[in-house]
Amino acid sequence: MRCYAGERIALFIDGSNLYAAARALGFDIDYKKLLDFFSTKGRLIRAFYYTALVEDQEYSPIRPLVDWLDYNGYTMVTKPTKEFTDATGRRKIKGNMDIELAVDLMEIAESIDHAILFSGDGDFRSLVEAVQRKGVRVTVVSTVQSQPPMVADELRRQADHFTDLSDLAQNISRSPQSSNKDEPDFSKAQSILFRDIDENLNLDETTDYVP
Questions:
Q1: CA-angle at 206, arms to 203 and 211, nearest 5°
Q2: pTM for the whole thing?
Q3: Which domain holds residue 46?
């Protein structure tokens, strides 16, 4: 991770993408450790976390996770998922947060020196190029250690620096010793939130999630 003393840093976390990458590598993210780790790398201005929420229930089991992040240093950006039926009659759930992330990064670009993007989504290549023209360095955090790799080649090429998530595992991974009774069950909450990625859950075969 190439960071310079005193530079202004902002984190942009594509929630479902980071969860998928960490799961592919076999560990859970400790979000307190993640924030503490990057706080030592410069002046951490903001840590944005993006996720869509299924709001068809009075109580969502992932709400404690969202609230915990909100109260512990993260700027939560959420919106309700949308359901639609495709041409084959399959019910799909859409929860794309790309626009929200892009708007926030463009707005804050003048106030930061270094953007750290936790996503491998190739759709962000043009966004990265745009903020680079404003003088912002961009680090992409994802992984090529999974099969298949989780980062798009065009995004990796565009970034000023690429950091494999596996290289950060010892600093940001969750362990039994790091558990706190006041924290929600992160692993369970995320597997529910991003259940489209969790292959161990028995989903209705007619339901898909469209990222």
A1: 75
A2: 0.82
A3: 8-210
The count of domains in the chain is 1
CATH number at residue 47: 3.40.50.1010
Q: Is residue 154 part of a domain?
A: yes
Instruction: Identify whether the C-beta of residue 32 lies closer than 8 Å to the C-beta of residue 72.
Output: yes
Q: In tens digits, what is the pLDDT along the chain, a chain of 211 residues?
A: 788 888 999 999 998 899 889 989 999 899 999 999 999 999 999 999 998 877 665 566 667 888 899 999 999 998 877 666 667 766 655 667 899 999 999 999 999 999 999 999 999 999 999 999 999 999 999 999 998 899 999 999 999 999 999 999 999 998 765 555 566 666 666 666 665 433 332 323 333 333 3
The answer to whether residue 150 is domain-embedded is yes
In a domain, 3, yes or no: no
**Residue 109 · residue 10 · CB < 8 Å:** no
